[in-house]
Amino acid sequence: MRHRENLIQSCGREVQHMQQALQLMNVHLHHAVSDLVGATGLRILDAILAGEREASKLVELRDSQCSKSTIEELAKALKGDWRQEHLFVLKQALETYRHLLKQVAECDAQVERALAEVVIPVGAQPESPAPKNPAAKEQASPKKKRFHHRKTGTSLKRDLSEELKRICGVDLTQIIGLNVLSVLIILSEIGLDLSRWRNAKAFCSWLGLCPGNKISGGKVLNSRTAHVVNRVAILLRTLGPSVGKTDTWLGIFHRRMRARLGPAGANTATARKLACLIYHLLKYKEEYIDVDHLILLEKIHSHRIGRLRKQAEELGFEVVAKQVAA
Fold first, then answer.
1. How would residue 156 be classed by pLDDT, with cut points 50, 70 and 90?
2. Which residue stretches of 51-177 are H helix?
3. Per-residue confidence (pLDDT) for residue 139, from 0 to 100
4. 145 φ/ψ angles, rounded to the nearest 5 degrees
5. Cα four-point dihedral sign 172, 177, 181, 187
6. 285, 170 in Cβ contact below 8 A?
7. Which is the most buried residue in 34, 176, 197, 250, by most CB within 10 A?
């Protein structure tokens, strides 16, 4: 998976080379379409390299679902000076990009073969029983996560969720924010044996997602998280902003932490929540339970009312709920 990530980064560099070549020719295709290497972008690039220069002809290759720009705006963006040296760079960058995509596809095929060869011992049980959490289970039920993952040219072409469920014993893609590729990266880094970490706290500490404990003479010198270079931690932190946009309990948590700690602190706090979920599901083989976000909102509302009443009492006032007419 690390090699695949390197290939993806190389693809990104080639896309930047294509954007630079277009920019130097005063062609703003990469500003007129949402994805330069999407369906519309690739068709127009191929036509340009084939010798087409008329903007009116190139606009005909626009997909009907393209919404970032109008036909007139796209035609205006496709007028440039078409210098040969930049067309040459554009051609080589596009060829390299497509070659890298083939290597990514070969890498994905190798990953599929490796997953198919994994043998899981039958009847394997966790060494210690799962900690009880009846309060959460009484108010929750298994639900499909409400999270949309955008498909790109470097995305996995085949759904490996069932294969990963067979290997892990639990469907990690049900966790908010995780998709098949994320789970593959996590498993390639930490494996399936979580006995190396005595609990979820130790696992989060290894990832560098816990506050520091630099204390001297009873005084906290620094509580910043340790600088740990860990691919799993980087991945989980990257998921933070996307999770924060969802209408889920974890999205609510991220937004509250963002208001209190700022964006970076919220990403780390959300990453720690995700790490705890991953550790628990992998170790105890329990299905993910998505708590209804309305329950959390009701709890937050009750807490705010209680805090307001306490402050009113300290000031000699009384808070009375407003009666709504039926």
1. confident
2. 55-59, 71-77, 84-116, 134-138, 161-168
3. 47
4. -65, 145
5. negative
6. yes
7. 250
